[in-house]
Amino acid sequence: MPDTPLIRRSVVESAGKISIGDLEVNRLGFGAMRLAGPGVSGDPADVAAAERLLRRAVELGVNFIDTADAYGPETNERLIAAALRPYPPGLLIATKGGIVRPSRERWVRDGRPEHLRAACEASLQRLQVERIDLYQLHSIDPDVPLEESLGEVARLQQEGKIRHVGVSNFTLGELRRARRIVNVVSVQNRYNVSDRSSDEVLAACEREGLAFIPWSPLSQSPREPHEGPRARLAAWAVRRGASFVQATLAWLLSRSPAMLPIPGTSSIEHLEENLASASMRVEADQMAAIG
After folding, report:
1. Does residue 69 sit within a domain?
2. Does a structural domain hold residue 73?
3. Per the residue annotation, which of 71, 87, 135, 191 is the catalytic one?
């Protein structure tokens, strides 16, 4: 599919670059979770369309794709391999382990070392790679000491099965503990204009040169005040002639140089709309006005 006049590779590249350890990627990636079936379960209804979307994202300059073994479960990783292998040079596929899906409705944390080892090795097979460029602990298992979980991830890294280690859903204190065990290069936490509970984690990422990967970039709480930051950002979007989704991504990119947004969609039209936000910036005075 040729580039449309609306969106070209240069637009995605205009967001700048960010380091993931010794790797460098464009600062607007793609989150593949929404390509799974309903309830993040099973294959998408139209597998061929999902594969086309992944290829289109890469054509347009996306070189960071985030997935997890829990998406599907397992089917999301297989979809990425089917769509994109042989992987083009410079494409970073990040995946996560540490959550299991006994049913569509249940997401259960499992940080046992033996599970993480088996999960990582299964992800290697599904993605059809010899080494995972970024492997993230999906969430801390309250029944397993963090040191045991990440200790096993560190061993997998030493064995050459993982290139870089990331963490997800971590507090600042947990991040500090994690960094005493293994060299953490990224944090993936919930973050958006209305939920900034990870501000201190973001600040630590800025200081230490870690990438911060925000999930749930859209603020969707029905209790948000009509005059709050979300409403002011929505007003900025109207003045700019942008969609609210584009505004949220532009706000994230403007919020911090450590930010690596990964908007997801199952529509090529929405993919291109999302990626167009790479060229948008919320100026400092507007960031202050939004609050």
Report:
1. yes
2. yes
3. 71
